[in-house]
Each structure stands twice: as structure tokens, then as C-alpha cells.
Amino acid sequence: MIIHQSAGSSGGPLTAYAHPQYSAKHLHEDQRHLLSPSLSSPNLSSGHPSPLHYKGPPSPDITAIKNAQREDARLKSLIRRLRIISRTLAFLLSLGVLIPCALTLHKFLTTKDTYRTVPLANGTSQTRTAWAHDSRSWPTYMYFGVAAVSTLLHAATLVAYCCGVGKANVVNTVTSVFSWIVLMGNLGVWSAAVAVYRLEKDKNGISNDLWGWTCSHGADAIQVDFEGVVDFEKFCSVQSVSWYVGLVQAGAAALTVVIYVLVWLRRGTKKELKRMSKGHYDLVDFTIVSRVNNNAWSLGVAVPVGMRHAGKGEEGSGGLRTVTHARPLPNWATITFTIIFLVALAQARKPPQGQGGNGCDWYCWIDERIARLEKYLFANTGLPPLGHETSFTGSGILEPGPVVKSGSNYYSTTFRTPRLPYVPTFTAARPPSFTTSPPPYATPSSTIITLIPSDVPLLQTSNSIHTGYRAVAYYGNWDIYTRNYQPQQIPASKLTHLLYSFANINSNGTIILTDPYADTDKHYNSDSWSELGNNVYGSIKQLQLLKATHRNLKVLLSIGGWTYTNTNRAMDTPMATSQGIQRFAASCVQLIRDYGFDGVDIDWEYPTDTEQGSEFLALLHETRRQMDDYASTLVYEDKLGREMKPRFLLSIAAPAGETNYRNMPLGEISEVTDFVNLMTYDYAGSWDKVTGHASNLYASSEDPLSTPYNTASVLAGYIAAGVPPSKLNLGMPLYGRSFTNTEGLGLPYNGIGLGSWEAGVYDFKVLPLAGAQEFYDAEAGATYSYHNATGMLVSYDTVPMALRKVDYIAQQGLGGAMWWEISGDKTDEGSIVSNVIKKLGGANGANLESSPNWLLFPDSQFDNIRNGIAVARSQGFRRL
After folding, report:
1. Which segments cross the bilayer (predicted)?
2. At residue 115, what are phi and psi to the nearest 5 degrees?
3. Who is most buried in 274, 293, 303, 701, counting CB within 10 A?
């Protein structure tokens, strides 16, 4: 509509040309007085007509102009909405990083000076705080700072948006000015912050940053001592989710890019509008206030150039009086924030237990939602669970994993307390776990699989079965994570026994698998989500596959370890009752039956007196009895009448310290066990005041302080107690103990070094360290390295030293070698395990023990373990 009032005639008549679409009939009755007494007649004067005073080029295509105008309005509205959405999303994501960081820093600052006395492995104690030595808090401060600045900027923008269009126009200008800053902030600053925060976690294998420490095994180990001070598991989850939120925040810049595209499109529309109107009309919004339904009602009009209004109720340069009213932006953002806050407050502040609630506080509430998010993300996207490390496995799959480390005061058998222990029952089906359920797009297969190839001979001839040296290695379920050592990398063709570590013990004696993901749930490249039936996956399935292709490899489940049985004293309560002992033995049989183990290894560190030593013996007897009873039900006969049945193995990990092994009836224990794994290492470490050899064969008369223990005296003690040497496996470490700022053996030191995965402990695969020189102490029968410039001494077995121990095994008539633990070894010609087995086994391994593992578990609750019986039938075997 074109409206014109004669210049200089304030009371003169109006002349108008109305576009048919916007004629007066479209106006509400109470709005017509804003224009003219009459819009229905070309002659708007009651007496004498007044012709149109505007003269110029012909009128443009009004329909095209209005279409362009509507497109411009649509883009403008869409841009405004997307800007509000993007700022709201960015604000919430920034809060999602800010709050966890604030909680972590607050907890750190309020507890970093809280000291507790923590027991050490050598029986002494240490006063320390709940946090890592030389804690690095700057990554968390950095992450917090980025989140704080981002939160304030986005909050300020949203507040301005919510103040109405007047303020929004200002904000629009500000937003345009700072739009590139916002984009670079999301893409640049957030990406850098997320990357740095993650890279600083456990940097160089040291968990002294706040995130890395709370997720580490070292923190787990002292959790009991700092109960009520810091809940490391919760703060691990809180910081892990903040990292994921930051990752999303960095990616949210994509929405800003979409807005820029729309702004570019609108700019083209405005140029087209200007082109069509050039020389004719300048288009402005002429808004008429409607009282209908209390809504603002807008009408677009075209006003001749030079006749713009100066303001509400004022005359413009052309004398036109206009009435303007802006539609206010909806204040939905404020309402949304309020609702979210109230819902979160209501759910987080649940009543305490006993008052109709479950005692869940803010941290618990966050933890619950993290768990739900994990399940949803994994089911729909395959993202790994939070609170875990992320590393590429040998199979090329991105896999999560907790940071697994042992404290600096631990023996090598010490490993983490499980975050989410899985407690199996004897009658229940496989426990539900979101990682074991196939994603929604999986289509079940019609094929039921078996882990045993059909051509594997189940019956071994007597010619292939003979006694010999044992080659035994421990393998931890944590190795798949930060160490990135997968079951497929185990040298299965060389080993005779593999001890899968560690299971825990419940207070009633039930054995607990400690890591469902690593043990039974993880899917490797060869695993399918669509297999029919109830199947087991994870490391346990991979170990069964190794058994099927390497028939001389026996896989035992190792139960206990330092953390569970020494730090947590998990064996004390159940072993004190006959019911606990029976339940322990029964659950051993259940785990063998379900998961296909060839036996169990029990690592109780340690019975504290002779009474507990007697309980240990009773436990071994009951376990032996129940395993034999179950084995008697697994008798098979082939077509020629030849029988086969398993003998499930029973072994223990035995201490080297006389104060520990003298509490145990060693002679009687050796009668009921198949072999004993001597932990002849960790003779010296961070618990000592001077440096020393960690796994020496003999005592040193020249420097006695460097050899507080020695293997020769340990063997003498065991043999004197009635243990046959042939049942003893000599333990060899695949790691070294380090001391810093020292002048040599038997001398004081200051510090223990960074270590590979824990302070003061280096994997053999990285030794000797750069610049260090290796030495052989002939009198002590030990090797070590020393760095003259740094004063660092590392005690460990070199390959030549390990081969000398092979000679010692032969001289003493021992049963074989044992290693803690397999992931620390080198994989090339410098491998200790390969070199020792080559010398120990002789040509083609003829001197190694040869006896078949057991593959038939028809009573397993898992289909892929149980269905191996189909292979037995195909080879003509029947169960008696």
C-alpha cells in the first residue's frame, strides 16, 4: 500500500493506492481510523478530489517485491531463532563443563591438605594426602577458565535477547560484530581446550593430574583410607563427562556455520529487494497495533522515498505520521532455564534414606545420568562408556578403558579395585549389561556358533603328553586398556599356562568377575552383534579361541591379588567359616563350568597367622574336591572305547618373605596343588630407605644392604617346609624398580622416577632407559642399569640374567618359570619370555610340559562355550 500526505498540509486529504491483497477490508474495524475516513474510493476528499502528488518511474512488480519481502522476513525470523537456540545450547554445554570442573577444584582445594596414614606393602605405613604427589591442577583450572568465560559470554547474549526487540536489535549488532569471535571460540578455543585437557591426562604415564588421578588405580587403592574425604570414582565420572561435553561444545560450532549460511542467503534476498525497489520505493515495516487476542499484528507497507517516519508518533521528513509497535521476542529461554533448574533441583535433592528417598545427592544424581547417557550413546552410536581411557586396540577398534595403575607402594600383583563389580549367581542367567546387548539395527543370525574348530582333535595321544618345564604367565584384564595389550598378542604357542587376573571375593565367599567389559562384553573385530543365543565375549572368549588353536595352553582364573586380599582383606571374612569356604569352592566350579577355565589360581596376600594358614589349606582342599567332583561328570568316550576327562588345575601365588610364608603349611599345600608360583621379585622398592636389587638370586656379602632378600634363601625355606622343587615355578619380573638421585646400590635415594604406568615401575619393554648403562652383579646374581647424569638406578632382569635363571631352575630341579606380567615384555628378539622358553624348552619345546587343555563345557550357561559339544559329537564322542 502506498500512502501519501501532501507536504505542508497537515490537515489535507490522503491519497492512496492500495494493493488488492492489502486493501482496507483486511483491517480490523478498530484499526481503520489509523488511516483515513475512507479507503474504498479513489477520491478520498468529501468535496474536491486531490490527485497523487508523486511523479516518477512506473510502479515496480509489487507481487515480486512482497514475495521477496516475505522471504526476507522468514530468513530473519529463522536466523533469530537459530541464534537463540545456538546461544542456549552453548550456554548449557558451557555449564556442563563449568560445574564438574568447579566441583573437582573445590574438592581438591578443600582436601589437598588432609593427611591420612596409609599402610605400605612392606608392613610399614606412610602419611599422605588423598591426591597424587606433585599434583598438576593447571589442566583443570584451564578447562574451568575456558568454560567460565564461555558461560558468561553466552549468558550475557541470552539476557540481552530476552529483553525484547529493542535490546535484541542492539544484540544483533553486537552479535554481528563478535560473530567471528564466537565461531573461532567454539572451533578454536574449545577444540584446543578439549585436546589439551585430554592430552594432559596421565601424561607420560603419570597420573598426577586431577582427572587422571581420580580414575587411576593408585586412587582406588587408597579409597578405603580416604573414605569420607574424596570419592574418587564419582569425581572420575564427573570429569570424564565434562570432557565429553566439551567435545560436543566444540562440535556445536556447526550450528553457527548454519546461521552464517542463512545470513548469507538473506543478504542475497535483501540485495534483490533493493534492486527491485531502486528508484521507486524504499520499503519499511509499517506496523499497526491490534488489540485482538492481545497479539501484535504486522502489516508491511511501501512508503515513497523521503517519507520515512522519524519515530513513534512523530512526523518524518515527508510529513507522514506513523504508528509503530514491535512484536516482542518470546521469553521462552528464561522459562526453559527455570524449568530445567527446578527439575534438576527436585531430582537431585532426593530425600535421604529412611525418608522416602534413596539418599542420592548431587554427585549421585550426576552419576546416574552419566550411566543412562552411556547406555543411550552406546546403543545408538557405539560411543564407549565414560570414566574410561580411550585407546586404539590391536584390532583397530576404539575401545574404552579405565586408567589402570597400582600405587607406588604395591607389589606387582597389585591391581585395581573394580569400578562396577559383576557378582554372578549360580542360578541366574547372564546379568544384563548395556554393552552386551546388540544395537537396535542388529539382525539376529540363524547360525549358532562354537568356539572350537571342527577339525581340532579332542583326544590327545599318550605320545603328546609328557611332563616337563612349565612356562607360566599372568595376564591382567586391565591390559586391554591403557597398555593396549590384547589377548591376541599373548604368545600362546610358547606358554604352557596363562593365569587370567584378577577375580575378587565377595564377603560371603562368592567369586566376583571384576570388569564385565573386559571379561565378557567387549566385541572384537571377529565378534558379531547378531549371533544367536546367550554368548560370552571379551577376553574370556578370546582366551577360549587361543585354547582351541593352542592345545597345550591351559588358562586358569587367578583370584585375589594384592588389592583385593591385602588392601581390602577380602579373604578374611569368608575363609573364617566353613560356609564361606564351601561357597568359594562352589563358585570356582561355577566359573570353570560357565567360562571354560582349566582351573583356578589363588593369590591370597597373605594369611596373617597360622590360623589363617590353616583356613587357606582347608580352602584348597575343598576347592580340589569340588573341582574333581565336577570333572568326574565330564567323562567322554570315543568309538574305540577310549575315555577322556579333564583334570582341573589348582595353583597358588606364594610369597617370598619369610614372615608371610611361615604362617602357611607349605608342605600340605603343595600336596593339594598342582604347582606353586613363587613371587621371587619386589625384594626392594620405594618402601626401602636405600636402593637394592629387586629379584636377585643370592645375598651380597660386599653390599648386604642391597640384598634384603634373595631367591636362594626363599627356595631353601620352601624345600625345608616339604615343598617338592618340581612344584615350584621361579617368578621373574617383566618390569624394573627405579630409584632416583642415588650414587649406587645400597645407598640412599631421593625419588623413584616416573615409571611406565605407575611411579617407580618401568616395563621391561622400555628398559634400559636412554643414556643408562647396564651392569651385572655376579655375587648377587642380579642386573641393573644406572644413569650417571641423572643418578637413576633401575633394578630388573636383563635377557642374559633371565637366561642365567634358566640355569638356576635346572640346577635346583624347579618346575619352571613364571612371569608377572606378560604385557611388560618386549615383542622382538629381546623378549625375555621367548628367550627363556627357547632355552628352557630346548629344540622344538621338547622339554616343556605337554598336556592338553579342556574344551568341552556342556553345562555352561553361554551358548558359544557350551556348543563345543557339537564338535565332540562330530568326532564320535559321547558323554558317559
Report:
1. 84-105, 141-165, 177-197, 241-265, 329-348
2. -110, 145
3. 303
Task: DSSP letter for 187, please.
Answer: I
Please state which of the ranges 16-20, 114-118, 697-701, 785-789 shows the lowest mean pLDDT.
16-20
When pLDDT is averaged across residues 88-97 and rounded to a whole number, the result is 85
Helices (DSSP H) in 134-282: which residue ranges? 138-161, 165-184, 190-199, 210-214, 217-221, 232-251, 253-277
| Extents of the domains making up the chain | 67-260
83 within 8 A of 259, measured Cβ to Cβ: yes
- List own/partner pairs for 455-463 with CB under 8 A and 24 or more apart: 456/548, 456/549, 456/551, 456/855, 456/871, 457/551, 457/875, 458/636, 458/644, 458/855, 458/856, 458/871, 458/872, 458/875, 458/877, 459/638, 459/642, 459/644, 459/875, 459/877, 460/551, 460/644, 460/851, 460/852
Q: Assign 460 to helix, strand or coil.
A: coil
Task: Tell me the residue type at 588.
Answer: C
Contacts of 785 (CB under 8 A, 6+ apart): 736, 767, 768, 769, 772, 773, 774, 775, 793, 794, 796
Cα 823 to the center of its chain, rounded Å = 20
| Local confidence band at 348 (pLDDT 50, 70, 90 cut-offs) | very low
- d(CA 319, CA 309) in angstroms, rounded, equals 8
Q: Which of 878, 34, 109 is nearest to 458 (CA)?
A: 878
Among 409-418, 598-607, 848-857, the least confident range: 409-418
Residue 219 and residue 212 in contact, taking contact as beta carbons nearer than 8 Å: no
Average pLDDT taken over every residue of the chain: 75
Query: Quick one: pLDDT band at residue 353, thresholds 50, 70, 90?
Result: very low
> Could you write out the three-class secondary structure of 386-421?
CCCEEEECCCCCEEEECCCCCCCCCCCCCCCCCCCC
User: Cα separation of 73 and 66, whole Å?
Assistant: 10
> Is residue 207 scored above 60 in pLDDT?
yes
Q: Where are the alpha helices (DSSP H) in 409-564?
A: 516, 538-549, 562
Helix axes 232-251, 138-161, angle to 10 degrees: 50
Pairing of strands 792-795, 782-787: antiparallel
Cα(406)–Cα(805) distance, integer angstroms: 27
Residue with cell 578443600: 110
Any idea which residues carry the catalytic annotation? Answer: 605
The model's pLDDT over 271-308, given as tens digits with 9 standing for 90+, comes to: 666 666 554 444 444 333 333 334 433 333 344 443 33
Cα–Cα distance, 723 to 844 (Å, whole number): 30
pLDDT for 615 equals 97
Residues 578-598, mean pLDDT to the nearest whole number: 97
Query: Rounded distance, CA 880 to CA 870, Å?
Result: 15
Cell 509503530 -> residue = 324
